[in-house]
Every structure is written in C-alpha cells, then in structure tokens.
Design a protein that fits this description.
Layout: H1 3-16, H2 45-50, E1 69-71, E2 77-79, E3 84-88, E4 100-106, E5 110-116, E6 121-135, E7 141-147, E8 151-154, E9 160-164, E10 170-176, E11 187-188, H3 189-194, H4 198-205, E12 222-224, H5 231-235, E13 248-249, E14 258-260, E15 263-268, E16 280-285, E17 290-295, E18 301-307, E19 310-317, E20 320-326, E21 330-334, E22 339-344, E23 350-355, E24 364-365, H6 366-371, H7 375-382, H8 386-391, E25 399-400
Antiparallel strand pairs: 1-21, 2-3, 3-4, 4-10, 5-9, 5-11, 5-12, 6-7, 6-8, 6-9, 6-10, 8-13, 14-15, 15-16, 16-23, 17-22, 17-24, 17-25, 18-21, 18-23, 19-20, 19-22
The structure holds manganese (II) ion (2 copies).
Residues 294, 296, 301, 340, 354 line the site of one manganese (II) ion.
Length: 402
C-alpha cells in the first residue's frame, strides 16, 4: 500500500466506516469511488484497524484466502488459581490444519501437571524461566531449566511436565503437529489415577492400597506447588541414563545462520537439535527490512509474532493474493509451498517464529530460483534486462538489507 492509498483508506474509513468483508480486485482498488468505499456502519474502528487489509487490500491483492491471522489476545483464556492457557486450533483458526498453538503462563512454582499427548510438542520461552522434565520409552530421563529464548521439543507420547521457576515463573508458546489438538484433552496423571481401582494401583506399584487414600481429587492441570530445589538435586533423584538427545535447545543463544543489515535468522532443526521432528526459525527484522519472497516445500508454516508490526503478503496462485497485518501475540499460518514475504512496517524490531512439521528446515527463495536458471529464459518471462538479472544475488538472502 502506497502512502497515498493508505491515507485515502484512513480518510475513507474516518468518513464512512468499515464493512464486514471486502474483496478488492487487483485492477481497480485504487480507483473505487468514495461512495463505493463508504460504510455507514455500524463499525468498530479499533477492531478494523488491527488488520486494515481486510477492508481494502493492496492494489495487487485479489480474491479471498480466508483468515490467515488469529490472535491469542482474542481467544478464551482458561484460568486456574495457579496460571492460565489459551489456544488457537483448527476449531477457531480453520486454516491451521496441521499445527495448533497454545500460549501458557506459569508463575513461580506453578506446575503444568505431568501429562502426555498424541502429537509432538514444540515450545519457545518468551518470558522468565522454568524447569521441564520427561522420560522416554527407554526409561531414560530428562530434567532441564529453560529461560527466555530457549525452546524444547517432546516427541508424541513422551510424558512431561513444566514448572515456573523464581522469581516470576515463565510464559511460553507451544506448537503441536496436529491442528485438531486441544490443550484441554491431554492425558493427565491424576485423571488416570482417579479412574483406576486402588487395588490395581497397589498391585502395579507393589504398595498397600492405602497409599492412594489421599490421591483422589480432581484433575490438577495447572496448580501451585513449592518451588523445586536446585537442578543438580533434581537430577540426583534418579540413576537412570539421560536421554541421548536432550529435549531443550537454546535457540536465542545460537549464532544466526544468516545476518544482514536488515536482520537475522536462527534455525533449530534436526541438523543442530537432533531430538526434534519439528523445524523452526527465529527471525528478527529491522524497521524497513523484509523477509524475502519465498515458500517452504516441506511443510505448512505456523507463525507467532513476538514484537513489532508485520505485513505479510501471501500468493496462492490463480490470481489470488492477500495481505495481512500482524501484532504481538498474533498467530499467522501459511500452507505448504504457498509464496509469501514478511515486512517490518513498524518502528521497532520485528521478531517472530516460523514453526514447521518437518524435521528439516527448508525454504525456496524466489530470487535464487530466478538467478540460478539461464538469465535469457527469465528475461523472456519477465522482460527484465539480462544485465540487471546478472547483478542480482544467486545465493539466498533470507532478510533483505534495509
Ligand atoms: Mn504437553
Ligand atoms: Mn516463511
């Protein structure tokens, strides 16, 4: 959107108001009359301003790709006395068929109950610190402390827990490789105990049935507990071997795999984090910078916006292209091999996560495609000078310089 058309939009919005939906044709968007762009209302100006491209796309936009953006700020929050969680799944974000997201807060001492689930769990700590535990199918154990910028990955079926540490616990996002997953339907240790006869439990553990007299209570899910002792003390509780591939990884501490004046990209996939079957990238873009035009051949992309203001263009073929604006706590979704770019249109550093259901990170760059096939061939398509094409980079430029 040019400065002119943005002003025109704002002026039109102020004069008339915004309608529920608009499909703007590529040819005529700039030429619509004031009458055609008017909306006598009712309208909610604050709501409409969150993603102004729903009302009027860029002149190059066309068609309706559905809802490519949701926000944790706009979904039901499930509270307990100890903490909370909220989720964006295929039920409230229909495009997110292959991944579901959860945003969870565990203040100091708060525990996400020992549990497991069918899909794998990928997580990124956005605030504070916590302690995570797990045991794998070989009875090999895992206990670690994670801090802001770290991630963890628990394979499907591996039982685990999370607890907020001092001074103020943690907040994090979880991504599951199934859009239909719900945080409300995990397998809880208390739930199983509560529905198994005490005599069976006694037999199973080789202890008197009275051992479980105080165990009967409802599901804990998120509950308060005393802060744990030192990590060393928790590790000393078992003499079983440690898992061969640790489930935590300090993504934020990694040297970026790509850095330019426009920003940086850090990647965690099975190459440097062998435990994972879900690849991810942490992208930082300076004001005015852009994540280049690209697509991902192996997986859909689930995005979480941490800071800054972004504008993403999504190209879906058959003339369809939509533009979407993102703010902190927003979730974005781009299906596999669908072309897109992400611009920082704000004044602050844009930081966001890209999460995938493939073990390996992969993207294909429009620029490197064009510049690694014969230039005459490309020129015949796009009518760009061969001399100009030869000056373009042949390698990928994940974040183009400002
Ligand atoms: Mn879990
Ligand atoms: Mn991408």
């Amino acid at each position: 959107m040019t400065l002119y058309s943005r002003r025109k939009l704002l002026a039109t919005g102020a004069a008339g108001g915004l309608a529920a939906a608009a499909v703007v044709s590529a040819a005529a968007a700039e030429d619509y009359s004031a009458a055609a762009m008017s909306d006598p209302g009712p309208r909610d100006a604050a709501e409409a301003a969150i993603n102004p491209y729903e009302w009027q796309g860029l002149p190059t936009d066309h068609g309706n790709l559905g809802t490519l953006r949701h926000s944790f700020s706009q979904v039901h929050n499930r509270h307990t006395d100890a903490g909370w969680a909220r989720e964006v799944t295929v039920r409230n974000f229909p495009i997110s068929k292959n991944m579901a997201g959860v945003n969870m807060r565990l203040p100091a001492g708060a525990v996400r109950e020992l549990h497991w689930h069918v899909p794998a769990e990928w997580a990124f700590v956005t605030y504070g610190s916590g302690r995570i535990t797990a045991v794998d199918s070989g009875a090999q154990r895992f206990v670690a402390d994670v801090k802001v910028g770290d991630l963890w990955f628990f394979p499907g079926g591996v039982p685990h827990s999370i607890q907020g540490l001092g001074p103020d616990g943690c907040e994090f996002v979880l991504v599951f490789n199934d859009g239909n997953f719900s945080e409300d339907s995990t397998f809880l240790i208390t739930d199983w105990f509560n529905h198994t006869p005490k005599q069976v439990l006694a037999e199973n553990f080789g202890v008197p049935a009275a051992t479980f007299d105080k165990t009967d209570r409802k599901d804990l899910w998120i509950f308060s507990a005393p802060l744990p002792g030192s990590l060393d003390a928790d590790l000393a509780e078992s003499s079983q071997p440690f898992v061969p591939n640790p489930y935590a990884f300090p993504l934020g501490d990694q040297t970026p795999v790509f850095q330019s004046a426009g920003g940086s990209v850090r990647i965690a996939d099975s190459t440097n984090f062998p435990a994972t079957t879900m690849a991810a990238a942490l992208v930082e873009i300076a004001p005015g910078g852009m994540r280049e035009l690209h697509w991902h051949p192996l997986s859909d992309e689930w995005q979480y916006y941490i800071s800054g203001t972004a504008r993403m263009g999504v190209f879906h073929g058959e003339g369809r292209n939509n533009t979407v604006e993102f703010h902190p706590s927003d979730v974005g979704y781009v299906p596999q091999s669908i072309g897109h770019y992400v611009q920082n249109i704000g004044k602050d550093t844009l930081r966001f996560l890209e999460v995938f259901t493939s073990a390996k990170y992969a993207d294909i760059s429009l620029a490197s495609w064009m510049n690694n096939v014969p230039h005459e061939l490309v020129s015949a398509h796009l009518n760009i000078d061969v001399a100009t094409l030869r000056k373009m980079a042949q390698s990928k430029t994940p974040v183009v310089p400002v």
